[in-house]
Amino acid sequence: MSLLDRSACQLLADLKAGEISSVELTQASLDRIEAADEKVGAFLQQSGRAALAAAEQIDVRRAAGEQLGILAGLPVAVKDVLCDSTTTTTCASKMLANFRPPYDSTVVAKLRSADAVLVGRTNMDEFAMGGSTENSAVQLTRNPWDLQRAPGGSSGGAAACVAAGMVPLSIGTDTGGSIRQPAGLCGVVGMKPTYGRVSRYGLVAFASSLDQVGPLARTAEDVALLLEAIAGHDPRDSTSLEEATPAYSQSVSKPLENMRIGVVKEQFATGLNSEVETAVRDAIAVYESLGATVKEVELPHSKYGVAAYYVIAPSEASSNLARYDGAHYGHRTDQAEMMAELEAERKQLSESGDQRGLDNLDTPLIRMYRRSRAEGFGPEVKRRIMLGTYALSAGYYDAYYLKALKVRRLIRQDYDKAFEDVDLIAGPVTASPAFKLGEMVDDPLAMYLVDLYTVSANLAGLPGLSMPCGFSEAGLPIGLQLQAPPLKEQRLLKAAHMYQQTTDWHTRRPPET
Amino acid sequence: MPEQPYTTVIGLEVHVQLATQSKLFCRCSTQFGAEPNTQTCPVCTGLPGTLPVMNAHAFELSLQTAIALNCDIPGFTKWDRKQYYYPDLPKGYQISQFDLPMSDDGYLEIADPKDRFEPKRVRILRAHLEEDAGKSVHDEAAGKADSEIDLNRTGTPLLEIVSEPDMRSSLEARAFLQELKLLLTYIGVSDCNMQEGSLRVDANVNLHLEKDSEKVATPIVEIKNMNSFRAVERAIDYEAKRQYDEWQETGRRLGESPKQTRGWDDAAGVTRGQRSKEESSDYRYFPDPDLMPVTTTAEQVEAVRAALPELPAGLRQRLGDDYSLGHYDADVLVNQGRPVVDYYLTAADASGDPKLTCNWVTQEVLRELKDKEITIEQFGVSAERLAGLVKGIDSGAIPGPRGREVFTTMLADDCDAQEATSKLGIEQVDESELVALCQKLVDANPKIVADVKAGKQQAVGALIGQAKAQNPNVDPGRVREICLELAQQS
Ligand SMILES: [Zn+2]
């Protein structure tokens, strides 16, 4: 049995007991990546030598009896969207292919100060825009349970590397479901914390009011451990909450009593795959067997969630991505080629006597912007920039952006009301198990609907968790989503842990890799 | 001034750089004049993943200013992104305030002590906080060569103060700017250095005139690139004439052509049309999701108001009410800034003669400061010593005409009035001694006596000269009085 079959918490105990060393564990992780990632494609970059050096340091400090951080010696993978000054942060985009941030994101800094061993950077949809990781400008990531299928996204690499047993812990980000959806499709546990629970400083922004960093692992206990390491107020993030971080890793094993679980009827309506429905209902039955009462709740405005999300997120994205203009850093178009192009156009216009065309010809600066952005961004990113630019334009702002904000408030109010009667809301993460690679690339709208069950938690700012609750006949994992009121991550973790204590879905491993 | 066939209507937009140590959303220094791009960090250069954190001191300074401008302070204000592309704007947007500024609806009172216009209130539409952009340095000499960008200024806190179009002449516009600058200097929120860009002024100008007894307005022109108050004055005068000529030529009214931006060319003394940046600029403002709205309570506003220093308008009033100074004198003192006023107040309180003290300060002291290009803090005669001089003159210990000699000696020898007086050998002349001297002179000059008696009082001047020659300490006025009296009696 490989070291990496053990949970992070188990490994931590083994490290503390001196049964294994961090160098051994890190080497095992790097070996596994070496062996499996050629097929899976979860990593954009591995930091083998640096990781081993860090592991060695931790082993030395442990031997010297030093006080170590709560992740001491554990390999952790980081989504390539969180700045790390020791390497590039590409967001899986050509635009930032060579971008080396001169600073660390708060999450990366916290991982380091918790003595985690950062083994590599995981693949994602470009700038976290997408639900299949197919929008990565760099490579495909495959679902370890079926290499013909997508791992989900945008944190596809983050989920796949955990599912394939390459690392016990990984960091993702979730703007509309980007942790929970790939976790669901890859059969691992993933959590989107309350908005503001984890610092966004150094997280390359997609949609600032929705983005949240969160943990992925195979067990609720491991997710609790990783969340404890990265959560907390950050004075460098004005939207970060001034809340003390609970000791999630301690409290996760305390069971919840008199649990009241809410179920939203509409989530089980048409469109939901029957295998998913069965697995989710079975999971809810497991909770009943553990003493929970189940109650139907209403989230009447959730049906507008996807529509509101695809106005708000692109609007913010169009603004957040304006900085990638080739002037200061990132991709810049070839200057000689650009000037030649302009000159050719000028010549053609003046030969045809097109004065108007000449007057409207781009200045070199404008042409530099146009070409740099056209070359640097992929189609989905461009699509969202255009959507957002349109929604924020004079004359459209009220009809789109303001209206979407109203929907957002109503969705939050629905949740507040629902949580007066229940402690948690349980339901599906996605309508179906993992889809085939390429299946939806030509249908962006269908792709957007993948977020149907997950966007509302982002719009409302509340925490959500996804964990495996069964498998389809084809052997694909099915996810259960739990949602809780703001700041009730502990409740989610406890509930997930209770479930994993009585079921063994999380112990299954993908066959192929 | 000749009656013009039009009224010039002027509104001003003033950008004031607030005197904070660090930038509005990061900790970088705001010091002027550093090497390019040395005062930058990942936040103000807009690197991916960075987030702004509001500088509370900048907000405090803007609150002080807005309250001093009699503005309303809403309980809730937020930050918006103003989006446009330019290389000196590294994020692709400027963090500013759009529909809910931190203050609105205030006013500033302006007056002209020389009575060239009626005192008036210029209404303030709004004042809001925003971050500055960087600086593009174009290498003009190299033709199409690359521009260079200096981001030291990027993120510096600016307070944009927008007036209503309440001014009716360049003189009023200048008075507004001077009073505003004075106010800002009194509160200490800005150094208002126009050369270093800490105070920037744009003017919106158009004309109101009558055509066939119908009131007509000409299109509004925004004038930019004015680097001194004098330039603002000249540019407005130029623009008013230019618009009048244009109106006579085209008859174009407000709304019939888009708002135009013109740049002031100070050397040529003209405004020139600037290529309008993207025809209709849609800045796609939306609330910045990275920043929390700022709430201000009525208690906070009151606390800031209570802590404000005495403002120029109130100070002028007090100098009039408590020190019996006229508008003109009060204005001269207040316009010198608070340290000169403090100097005056100390001297006036100590001398007990506010009017005479004012004369000494506004004439001799200010002349010295100007000639030597020094500040009042660097000036060699303390307020207490100046009060000693004034008291000496009032008591007669120092004959008025010799006051200046005493003052000069005090300054040169760094001594008080008493010491200077004795150094100069000035003694008070006893009344009986003075009468005796005058009697002697009258007796010795029968021709002058005869002239005086014949009504030529000015003839007595010769006696004053002789008296001074015999005793430099005599008071010429008193000599004149006594001699006239004695001459009449003889
Ligand atoms: Zn900075």
TrEMBL record, chain A:
**What GO biological process, any one, is recorded here?**
translation
Q: Where is the Amidase domain?
A: 24-493
The terms describing its cellular component in GO are: glutamyl-tRNA(Gln) amidotransferase complex
Which EC number(s) does the record attach to this protein?
6.3.5.7
What UniProt keywords apply to this chain's record, in alphabetical order?
ATP-binding, Ligase, Nucleotide-binding, Protein biosynthesis, Transferase
Q: Catalytic positions?
A: K79 (charge relay system), S154 (charge relay system), S178 (acyl-ester intermediate)
The keyword tRNA processing is assigned to this record: no
Q: Does the keyword Nucleotide-binding apply?
A: yes
- Reactions accelerated catalytically: L-glutamyl-tRNA(Gln) + L-glutamine + ATP + H2O = L-glutaminyl-tRNA(Gln) + L-glutamate + ADP + phosphate + H(+)
Any GO molecular function = glutaminyl-tRNA synthase (glutamine-hydrolyzing) activity
Top-rank EC class of the record's enzyme: ligase
State the family it belongs to.
Belongs to the amidase family. GatA subfamily.
Q: How does it assemble?
A: Heterotrimer of A, B and C subunits.
Known role:
Allows the formation of correctly charged Gln-tRNA(Gln) through the transamidation of misacylated Glu-tRNA(Gln) in organisms which lack glutaminyl-tRNA synthetase. The reaction takes place in the presence of glutamine and ATP through an activated gamma-phospho-Glu-tRNA(Gln).
Q: What is this protein called?
A: Glutamyl-tRNA(Gln) amidotransferase subunit A
Q: What is the lineage of its organism?
A: Bacteria, Pseudomonadati, Planctomycetota, Planctomycetia, Pirellulales
UniProtKB/TrEMBL annotation, chain B:
Using the record's annotation, list all stretches that form the Asn/Gln amidotransferase domain. 342-486
Q: Which InterPro entries match?
A: Asn/Gln-tRNA_amidoTrfase_suB/E, Asn/Gln-tRNA_Trfase_suB/E_cat, Asn/Gln_amidotransferase, Asn/Gln_tRNA_amidoTrase-B-like, GatB, GatB_Yqey_C_2, Gln-tRNA_amidoTrfase_suB_CS, Gln_synth/guanido_kin_cat_dom
- Answer yes or no on keyword Transferase: yes
The record's annotation in SMART domains points to: GatB_Yqey
Which EC number(s) does UniProt give? 6.3.5.-
On the tree of life, the source organism's domain of life is Bacteria
Say which enzyme class the record assigns.
ligase
Cleaved signal peptide residues:
none
Give a yes or no for keyword Cytoplasm in this entry: no
Keywords for the protein's UniProt record, in alphabetical order = ATP-binding, Ligase, Nucleotide-binding, Protein biosynthesis, Transferase
Chemical reaction(s) catalysed? L-aspartyl-tRNA(Asn) + L-glutamine + ATP + H2O = L-asparaginyl-tRNA(Asn) + L-glutamate + ADP + phosphate + 2 H(+); L-glutamyl-tRNA(Gln) + L-glutamine + ATP + H2O = L-glutaminyl-tRNA(Gln) + L-glutamate + ADP + phosphate + H(+)
One Pfam annotation, family name?
GatB_N
| Annotated Basic and acidic residues bias | 275-287
GO molecular function terms noted in the UniProt entry:
asparaginyl-tRNA synthase (glutamine-hydrolyzing) activity; ATP binding; glutaminyl-tRNA synthase (glutamine-hydrolyzing) activity; transferase activity
| Gene Ontology biological process terms in this record | glutaminyl-tRNAGln biosynthesis via transamidation; translation
Q: What segment(s) does the record annotate as region Disordered?
A: 249-291
The UniProt subunit note reads as follows: Heterotrimer of A, B and C subunits.
Main role?
Allows the formation of correctly charged Asn-tRNA(Asn) or Gln-tRNA(Gln) through the transamidation of misacylated Asp-tRNA(Asn) or Glu-tRNA(Gln) in organisms which lack either or both of asparaginyl-tRNA or glutaminyl-tRNA synthetases. The reaction takes place in the presence of glutamine and ATP through an activated phospho-Asp-tRNA(Asn) or phospho-Glu-tRNA(Gln).
The family line of this record is: Belongs to the GatB/GatE family. GatB subfamily.
Q: What is this protein called?
A: Aspartyl/glutamyl-tRNA(Asn/Gln) amidotransferase subunit B
Record organism: Adhaeretor mobilis
